[in-house]
Amino acid sequence: MEYMESKMQDHIEGAEHEYNDLCDRLSPPDDWQSPEWGAIQRCHNWRRYINEDLQGLWPEMSGRQRLVIAANAQQIADIEHWD
Hints:
Layout: H1 2-26, H2 52-57, H3 63-78
Helix pairs in contact: 1-3
């Protein structure tokens, strides 16, 4: 039993390390896990770059997928130029 618990702990720690690494490298928006799709501000808002089809798939995606996509959309939103 100790062996199984040890392996589970190793797996959990590995996943936590990967999550922290992704957050540090990609700096996803704060609301990447459960975005409020209707609350879209005009300027520099990552949710504007996620179409309705992708929004519909959001709950089915893994946390890693959502984090990476949201961070990518935020990078795009950050370089917007508004007059």
